[in-house]
Amino acid sequence: MTTAAFDGTQTRDWTRRFAESVYATEAELTALDQRAGDGDFGTNLATGVRAAGLLLDRTDGSAGPAETLGTMATAFLDEIGGTSGPLFGLLFQALSRAAAESGPGLTTAALADGTARGLAAIRRVGEASPGDKTLVDALAPAADALRAAGSAPPATALVTAADGAWRGVRDTASLSARMGRASYLGERATGIPDPGAVGIALFFASAAGTVHALGPLLRPAG
User: Which candidate, 82, 151, 155, 164, has a CA 20 to 30 Å from the CA of 144?
Assistant: First the structure.
């Protein structure tokens, strides 16, 4: 049975599976970032979900979607160094605000609104555009998919968002980086998916289940 909105328990389960996905793929994320970045993305993302988990453990079981996503935002904005942590925090913050405005449950419309707002904030702060080989290349197609999902239940809409995000991730492998440390590596970063984009795809994919390995998801379709 599908529901028209995620309640607090479903939203918290999503964040818990996201943490599990990060822990399961941390070594792969680190290996990617060692080839196309500073090598610390996997560690930073794991630190973020760990800090968020500790904060969520202090809330009672009645926390709604807005509070849960707001706690995620606090952890990533306040506890994580580097570039990606605060950018993920902006996404969670936008989703939290959209959830608060939509009512007690997290609807597909709120997910679409929050993701679009998060994308706009990240583009504004990070000065990145689609095609720059950043997490924007996964977040933009996820936002498009959620906007196109219409009245579909959140669980269904998030599957399409994850699919769009993974396509965006795979596309980053053929892009030349124009932002971040990867932009200084030139051809050495070619063929390597952007780690930040992978992190975004992990978040949306974790709505449906824990991701245990990146390899099959990073290979081109067909």
Answer: 82
CA 218 to mean position of chain CA atoms: 16
Which tokens hold the place of 145? Answer: 């998919």
Q: Phi/psi class of residue 160: alpha, beta or left (left: φ > 0; alpha: ψ in -120 to 50)?
A: alpha
Phi and psi at 198, nearest 5°, equal: -60, -40
Say if residues 155 and 134 touch (Cβ distance below 8 Å): no
SS3 (DSSP) at 157: helix
Whether 73 and 48 have beta carbons less than 8 Å apart is answered as no
Distance between CA 73 and CA 53 in Å, rounded? 12
Helix, strand, or coil (residue 173)? coil
Residue 30 and residue 44 in contact, taking contact as beta carbons nearer than 8 Å: no
Task: Specify whether the backbone of 186 is left (phi greater than 0), alpha (psi in -120 to 50) or beta.
Answer: left
Summarised one tens digit per residue, pLDDT across range 125-166 is 989 999 999 999 999 999 999 999 999 999 999 999 999 999
Helices and strands in the chain: count of H runs, count of E runs: 9, 2
What is the value of pTM for the model shown? Answer: 0.93
DSSP state of 182: G
Contact 152, 197 (CB under 8 A): no
Instruction: Name residue 111's amino acid.
Output: L
Tokens read off for 72: 């995620």
Q: How far is CA 51 from the centre of its chain?
A: 16
Looking at 5-9, 47-51, 187-191, 202-206, which range is the least confident one? 187-191
